[in-house]
Hints:
The structure holds two protein chains of two kinds.
Chain A: H1 2-9, H2 14-48, H3 65-72, H4 74-105, H5 111-121, H6 128-138, H7 147-152, H8 158-161, H9 167-192, H10 196-204, H11 209-220, H12 222-237, H13 241-249, H14 262-273, H15 276-301
Helix pairs in contact in A: 2-15, 3-15, 4-9, 4-12, 5-9, 6-13, 10-11, 12-15, 14-15
Chain B: H1 2-25, H2 29-55, H3 63-66, H4 75-87, H5 92-124, H6 130-142, H7 149-158, H8 166-169, H9 176-189, H10 192-200, H11 205-216, H12 218-234, H13 237-242, H14 251-262, H15 279-299, H16 301-313
Amino acid sequence: MSVTSVAAVKPAHKRQWRFNAAVLLGVPYLGFMLLFGFVPMILALIFSFSKYGSFQPEYFAAGFSNYISILKDPQLITSFGNVFKFAAIMLPASFVGALGVALILDLAQDRVGEVMRTIYFVPGAITLPAVALIMIFMFDPGISPFGFLLRLTGARAVGEIMTNRTLIPFMVILRFFSSSGGWIAVFYGALTGINREVIESAMIDGCNPWQMAYHIKRPLIMGYVFFMMITLTISSIQIFAEPYIMQTSLGTTSPIDPYWAPNMWSAFITVRTGDFGKSAVISLIMLLISLIAAIIIVTRTGQFKTDVVRE
Amino acid sequence: MAQIAHTKRNVRSLKEIYTHWRYQIGLGSASYVMRLGILLLFGIFFGVPVLWLFIAPTKAHRELISLSPLAIGNVQNLLDSWTRLTNFNRGIMFRWAQNSVWYVGAALILCMTVTIPAGYLLANVKFKGRQVLLWATVILMLLPGDATVLPMYMLLFVLRMINTPWAVILPAGLAPAAVYLTYTYYKSVMHRDIVDAAKVDGCSDLAMFWHIGLPLARSVVAMLLFTQFSILWNGFFAASIFLERDLIKTLPVGIAVMAQQTGALNPNPTAYGKVLLLRPDMALISIFTVLPVIIIYLISQRLIVRAATAGAIQGE
């Protein structure tokens, strides 16, 4: 809009050059951002008020009926309940696990620590469907290297281990296996960046390495930990690959139904029934939760520098 | 006598080594052993499943149960597994691999072409709306891609792109995390005074991007390629929904298809009729899929971690 106006008013001015450069360099990104970042959200909003039943969707014909039908559906509580339960175990497990291991790694700098860090990091490279398969094998008492532990429970088959009751802890182990190595590496990176003077003065004051890890180092990297917690909250709500693979590959013996997580439920409605209206409502609920969490990270943690004025 | 003196000297030197080691490590023996124990336990948790995955295809289906879990089988079993995999749907796994390579290749080129100029622009050019663009970038970056998959499905449906490779290639043009990383990179390498000095000399923003920005981009491109490659290669949710026809699927989606269609993981595979694939075969297709990423991960561990912490590092 203002491209032409600026160009028309001040054709030879230096500012015009900058503006042109900006347009050329940023236009593709802006285009992709609008098309794949914001248009889908707006479309979802439009579709959520539209009626799908006949061949042609009737836009804005549904009023709030899609919202009402989803909010009244008992599946809403079940699906969101599942992912919230997952998050409720995943968050503390990652807090204790990832942060704890990073602090323990940082107690000393040695070759063992380096090797271990790499071992923890590798599962992050594995695509989630493969992780799900590996974990199904790991929980099969017959073939798992941890089978001796599993057999202590008296179970003989994977179906006896993976029941409705153990499903969520199972998925937490799965996600922890795949994601925490990356977080450990991030925390460890942050820990090695701590000012050595702080560490040395604590040592002079008689602080032992464990006290130092807990009382001095931990508070200094809490920004990163907070960042992890919010990111995990967002990704927990979006969980799809693991329950999907378990549902489809274990067939009738699987304790999971096709609507187990909101994303599965929404995908099922979208792809199988073509009712974009209802699935848009589910997506919008998830998007809203994620957006709020994202805004909290940006505004509360100060982790991301977005202030171009004070440079 | 001489021998005793020699031994004593050795003892002293061992003691010296120990003292030196204690000084280096900064931990008492008990603490060191405890640290080692905890690290090893986690090492088993993260390492053994991966190790098992690489061993499993060397065993026959029955041997998975009859042999010890970490015992290595033989090459013949590995070849048998490979044959079963390549026979599945007349070698469709090669088609999936080919798809994965070309989708990811095209997506990476698109992503770099869009991202580098945008990151440069945000870091070094003053323009109206810069703050808004940066905010939008950060917000979108924190929304995981999966959050918009279904709204995206609706958009691609409207654009008639569902079931075409474009459904997974074009969205790669929007990589806000990569743009933010490029932005922080240019902020740190192109100091204000360099930019100002170049401007005083009459260098335009575009010329500066061409002569200074692009040559400097090399190291950030490496970082972006590594991180984006693993994200794109491993992508599952979007690909599994956008690509419904078997012939255009990718390897990660292929794993799910194989597991679902053959009942390889099902405790009663006979319920699926003829058994086409067995458990060792599923382990082998997983290795086939993840090996490129694992290799890249190991090579670029530092770069990937640096990319992940980029947002916060500059605050230190």
